[in-house]
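Let us practice reading a record.
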Amino acid sequence: MKISTPLKLAVTRSSWTTACFVMVYVLTGLSAAQDDATKKCLDCICYASTKCIANAPCDGYCGPFQISEAYWIDAGRPGGTPGYAQCAINRSCAEDTIISYMNKFGTDCDGDAQVTCDDYARMHKAGRGGCSAPWVLDTPYWTQYTQCMQGGSSG
């Protein structure tokens, strides 16, 4: 009888260890899937904005994502010094700006009770206050974004 208790404990530890490995595997897989989804979302927003032209002219909006200075400030000034324009033309810093902005202000723009890349794309085009406006769906930006998300070109 005394042997069964340690044996039972060993099985419990083994099961617990297995469960931990399974959880790590699942969470790592989910994280990778989320990273892929985030990359696809950013690539399609970039493509819709400028076809990811890195040296797109700065005229109130800069860089491949056409980020405004107010958007960059709202996002918390990613990249710090030297500042807005340098961040907006740097793909990595611009992506950090968008992620920070969406994490801070992400909202359900299309009324489907979920916050998805479509909502982020709408916010990126029309701002957080105008993202539910129907005009967004009638722009070349939206056409290019949806084509990209359906497997077309991306940055």
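A brief commentary: Strands lie at 61-62, 67-68.
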